[in-house]
Amino acid sequence: MKNILIPFDFSEVSKNALEYAVRFADHDPAITLFLLNITDGNCKTGKIEEDFKKIIKKYQKPQFPEIHTLVREGEFAPSIIQLQKELKIDLIIMGTRGAQTGEENIATTTSRLVQEADLPVLVIPGTYRKFRLSTIILSLGNEKITDRTPLYTLLDVSRKHKAQVHVLTIQHHEMAMGYTEDDESNEATLNYFLEMFYSHHSFEENEDIEKGILNYIEKHDMDMLAIMPRTHLPGSEASEGRLTRLLTLHSNVPLLVLD
């Protein structure tokens, strides 16, 4: 993991995401942060660049990662996706204000990007003001993991911060509990790809998958939630699109979407 892109609009939410990204980089000289402001053309580029200088001044010290600033004009998601290809971005870190209960159908800028970007996105809630990364909860559905590539990103994060990965599967009450053939396959995959950082796999009963995940995070004081959207059945109540959007809006801890 070398290049991290941070969409930045000078809001407190984006400043919080930058602060998290700096700590996430953890004195690694191989990591470069790119701060990106996307304008509709009404703002002067010179003014934005001056504002950027003020923002990054506090981070221009040897213990912090190298930070580059970029200003682009255009639509949000297409601009980011294009820049991802140009700069070979490995990860997007983006802040979100989230949403209150009852706002499940709204689509925020962050939730739309998570759906459209074809690379890992780490979403930082605006209310999350600390940095701690020793335990990660990976939420899996009941499907067999067929695309194992996203696990490399999870391994990179775990190895960098020496974080243990707890795996969680939420099942409805009427479903049989325990290990199926697909569960056993997933277990072998997790052990192989996550190496010594894989802790254990828990199965919890809850009719509401999102609520089950969030309850587990709170109960066990997890530091980060990771999801692999393609492991949730497209036709199920918690389809990959809906569940990902809900967790983007409601998670109180950083959410790593592995795509």
From TrEMBL:
InterPro entries: Universal_stress_UspA (IPR006015), UspA (IPR006016). Pfam families: Usp (PF00582). Transmembrane segments: none annotated. Residues 1-125 form the UspA domain. SUPFAM superfamilies: Adenine nucleotide alpha hydrolases-like. It comes from the Bacteria. PANTHER family: STRESS RESPONSE PROTEIN NHAX (PTHR46268), UNIVERSAL STRESS PROTEIN UP12 (PTHR46268:SF6). Belongs to the universal stress protein A family. This is Nucleotide-binding universal stress protein, UspA family. It comes from Salinimicrobium sediminis. The lineage of its organism: Bacteria, Pseudomonadati, Bacteroidota, Flavobacteriia, Flavobacteriales.
